[in-house]
Fold each of these.
Amino acid sequence: MGAIDNFGVQLWSVRHLMEKDPKATLKSLADIGFVDVESAGYVEGLFYGMTVPEMKTVLLDLGLKMRSVHTKTGITQPELKRTMTNEWEAFCKDNAEMGVTSVVCGYFEEAERQTLDDYKRHADLFNTCGEKAKEYGLSFGHHNHDFEFFDIDGETPYDILLNRTEKDLVMFE
């Protein structure tokens, strides 16, 4: 079976396999025809435990491209490096070097999404992160879940994110 143009997979869907053996999992994905991957396993400068050069080599050898990466806000883990709140520029540099074109805030921890002010802070952080990402040739975005649509005090948090972010800095998937 040949590869389909732009046929990709979000690696979150195989996260348990990626935790056990990322190289074998990526090979299996390439073997069944995937050509693009979206990472959900970047932590403190490593992609699934591999350095940027190592991950680039693995992907190149398998004919895979990583065009998109999920990131963490870091709000509930301030000691964690290379998140949206700690060493963001280093995160952008690593991902630009990887050949990534899109970085995405993949999730808000429950503790960081309790109030409308929490969502306003996220929107402001999105703008800041989007501006820096743009300097590195990256687009910045947000991957929503259901909780952004549950009203808080009569307002929909997702509307706050949409209305408070700069359209040229933040996209929504």
Amino acid sequence: MEIERTLSSALVETHPEEAAAVLESLDPGEAAELLAGESPSRAAGALARVSPHAAAEIVQLLGPARAVGALQRLDPDLVASILRRLPEASREALLHALPDESARPVRRLLRFPAGSAGALMDPSVLALTQDLSAEEALGRVRRAPARVLYNLYVVDRSHVLVGVLNLRELLLARPDAPLSAVMRNDVQRVPADADRHAVAGHPGWREVHSLPVVDEAGRFLGALRYRTLRRLEAELRGPEAAAGAPPTASALGDLFWTGVAGLIETVAGPGPAPSRG
């Protein structure tokens, strides 16, 4: 049994995609037993790659402490997708057990219908107010690099989305220039109630690698990341089509993010790595 445990741990760490396929082929109880012996970060890596339905079954059998240890290492949109599939009592128990900084964005996502832009967005993406100077805005970016995308969204004091600029434009701006003078006003945006077909087919993806999500009053709620688009496209195509799809879009996205991550790290200096786009 110890040899089997060692082998399964090695598979989870070095081949997470294959490990996810194995976990989905097992009875949920057996899968939970395997993950129970893994570190929280390894368990999270495996849960991130299995289907949300399978992940929910496994999480429910992991036990609260191990489940929370893994869930708090996952993106909020993925946690929300998993928790939606649990009975209400189990969902609330896990939300109550999660640290507040992890539970808060998940609760926000759970307010929106499953599959909508509001449920798929990252609600923790940084927004900057239009009266900040470029220098002040750069300070905000440096303090929260994990919440930064290449595109920076600008809001007014009522949190209405009014503009966008990218990191390069921010770096090149005069330090005392207000963001209102540097930003562009023509912002591609997605209504929070847009369904997943509208999200995947939004024309803005041809130009940008993230899209802001707004409510009916135009207030900024969060942003859809490119990785969410890729996951959504795979779900809409179905497993067989996804398996045979050419990797061009994925490869281009990875190449783009490599450059963006380097730029964010340069701006932010030492500190936590930026979250992938």
Amino acid sequence: MADTSLKYDVIIVGSGVAGLNIAVNLDPSFKIALVTKTKLGDGASWLAQGGIAAVSSKNEDDSFASHVEDTINAGAGLCNTEVVKYCVENGPDVVSDLVKFGVDFSHREFIETAEYDLTKEGGHSHRRVYHSGDITGESMVGSLISQVRARENVSFYEDHTSINLIREEDGRISGLYALDNSSKQIRTFISKIVVLATGGAGKAYLYTSNPDTATGDGIAMAYRAGAAISNMEFFQFHPTCLYH
């Protein structure tokens, strides 16, 4: 019987900002499969409005130390300090990459130097939030999708619901099984590297503003494969809707 499995160097599950950003930053010599439950970009990333916090070199009063302090204070001391430092210190480079990929962050009006319109949101002591109007997520995802689609080394498997990781006896992950929602057939993806960028599980709650795709598939697959799951109490409930 012929081997019908699909073989790749890297499999990425999820097509939000995380999955797309990984795809555009991997070496173009890698053969990549991007597997997503519905269509590219569907999910919470597209719906994000506010912006991205990063220290700007234009603001001499701001600093990495200040951003770290603000973040830890806003997190009521529950943050992993090393993770906070890593994210804060790499924030400016991420913003630069997104600009390079075509994200149009808003600029201040009537300023000849065309400075970015940095805003100051809850928890921040300085203006450091880059935004693209009020549709930052849409701008980011749209730009990243354009970049990914232009890459010949990436194959897209839309409308594929990931079911389970393939775990070898020695604990190695060698791929995953996914359901083709159109044909109702199970497909086998083989790879030494599988990246789970599937988002959260907010849709597990009856009343929520999370998208229908946020059902925790990746978390469940990782758990069944033996990964340690922590901080499950931290679900995002974005307060921009009213339940009457």
Amino acid sequence: MAVYFVYRSHYDLPSGKHLRRFDDATVLDWFSDRWDYLVHGDGKPDESARARLRDLLGCHVYGLGSLFEAAAEEDVPAPESDEQLDACLHTHLYSEGPILYEPHCLTVQTDDDELEMAYYFFDDDYLRRHRARAAYLLHEDWRLPSGHAGGHFRPRRQPIDLSPAGTGEGATYLVFNAYYDSSNLSDLEGGHRIEGVRLPDLARYLAQNSPEDRHCPFELRLLRSQLLLPLPDLAPTEAGLLDALLDNPADEVTWAAYSDWLLDHEGKLLGQVLLERALAESRHCPVARLCNSLDLSFFGFEDVASARRHLKELIANPKCDRSHHDPVKSLIHVEEHLAQLCLHADRGGQHDLYHQWTFFDDLWASAHPDLADALLDYAATWDVLSTGGSREG
């Protein structure tokens, strides 16, 4: 039997979440068995409850220490039932958002006046009934698993479809976990989807199609502006092919020639190479300061070359301070049907701040359906676990 704790936060966590497992039977047992230690210190009374909690969980969790500090001040005994734990949480736990408790599952949403965060406790009893809901929370590494299957994926939660649709088979799903103001969990938009395009063809699709929807995510417009870059040290043939595509991205003959050349000379797939390069270049953009300082509502709807020039102008604006942005701390992973970017966005005080971009197509999702659904849930609501309470987002 086990209890799982997950902290969802943009602070210091490239993946945006922190997972810790404990050998307890239930969520109630986790709190009751550790109550004396967290409240009284078990021989370490000079150490604060927040410090003990940080050592136990492996990270600082905003607001959770208030429960044990209040229990010490008011001599609150350890809860012995789910009803007592529920009452104790709602009476003594500091939170700026909802506290949702049901037996075997606790979800809390709060904020530090700058950003919102959430944390979750759940146990194996919960997982026996609702494991699919926790599939993403239980994934430890920032890098998602590889593999693909037949493409028979129908998402549980409807994503936002972007236009224009592609003309091929399948679909690509886009999940952006970012912050641009203090309502980063309250105003979640959800995942996006491009029908008729699979991930190997996403770079070509973006190069050939300007967004038609004014609500197209900024992140996708940023990625598009970084396509077909004439990087240094490229072979003359490849540089010429890139220039030709930048001038005329609709030229299918050049696309085919470039694909063949890259496969023959480097043994690599063109769509994967172009997407990885664009993600690598996107990490140099100071996204947090850019979006907080300037109006980006008209950026990225031009052709790729114009969008790139537009971005350079925006970044050169004196209002866009990039001094706290460190692209070296970003993490990138790209394969045929999955791509990820943990983007170092800014630094606040002593904390690094990250965004997470995840792209996958229906072939990857059909091999990992629970994980794909959980990713789309994660992009749409902070409350990914509750079964009887509110599912706000």
